[in-house]
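FAQ: What does the model actually see?

It sees only this:
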Amino acid sequence: MGHSAMSEADAQQRALVFSALGDPVRLRLLSLIASAGEICSCDLQGPVGKSQPTISHHTRVLVEAGLIVGERRGRWMWWRVAPSQINNVQRLLLP
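And it is asked to produce this:
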């Protein structure tokens, strides 16, 4: 076949991504962030019906998986898909 097996580091990173996306709330948050381009944490509560502490927990998991990046502006975080992950996320979220 010509394909080599993935390294242990690649396997660990991909497992983090799969684990992060295995939760429906995180998958929905990623979809909302990707479709908005950039979105404030304050605008995520309504669509997912979760409290701000719960959203903070889920966005932290998405950050640790390398899927999103954030920037603090005032008291709110603004989220966007990590530049290195844009193509992967678009493929994941296509219907």
